[in-house]
Amino acid sequence: MFKSVNKDLWAFDAEWVPDPEAGKRLYLLPEDTPDAEVIQKMWEEGGADEENPMPYLKTTICRVISIAAVVRADKGNGEVALSLTALPHDAADPEHTSETEILSRFLNAVGEKKPQLVGFNSSKADLKILLQRAVARGIQAAKFAKRPNKPWEGYDYFDARNSEAHIDLIEILGGYGKSNPSLNEMATVCGVPGKLGVSGEEVAPMWLEGRLAEIVAYNECDALSTYLIWLRMAYFGGFFNNQQYIEEQERVRNLLSTEGALTGKEHLLSFLERWEMWSQLNS
Fold first, then answer.
1. pTM
2. Which CATH class is domain 8-282?
3. Which helix (H) or strand (E) holds 103?
4. At what angle do helices 99-113 and 127-136 cross, to 10 degrees?
């Protein structure tokens, strides 16, 4: 179990696809090879077969296309601000959709604010790909990378053993084989919506079709699921009493209803509707 809840906490999730640029270099393909053909070649080299035509590839040869986070800020005296943010802010603007822009904005914001990061399988996947691809893109994130001389002197995103700067929920909840749940499985048994009509293997085909806005929406739902699982675990661990837990959930409902009223955010209302339905069934 985690030992602390920081006043600034970001429950995050990232989405990525095979990087055609990396595929061309690795397999010496002509520069004018279509992205779809490059990615198909990458899957073939990654062990694709009839049962698994789109195998999970090494993260270092994939491209980050979206990062979403639920941001919780405890301002004291019972005042808590909750928000949902996602990169790119504008899925139609090439400047916003650049991998360099997405990684730089997120990692430098983390370095500046020093929040407690919460993810699901993030130690081995999400956080690792952010680091790998930031290095690959030549990004500087000095404040994120800065490590304290001693564990108690500040947050260290590179020391999972002595620092709670980053909490990976699967490392607490999971085990081996059948005891290791996916985000969607854990969310579902908790009465949290999880996936809404899109699954992870659909992300690459969606990206090739130019459906980035839908991917960002999917990413936001995963970040929300991660946050709600963390919230339930924080209650389990005694960080919130019964009344505080009710208030924390109500903040999420208010966020979903407010943000969901905005154009292009209708998926948040769908998330809320399913959550309310499952909550009633579990009560």
1. 0.95
2. alpha beta
3. helix 99-113
4. 120
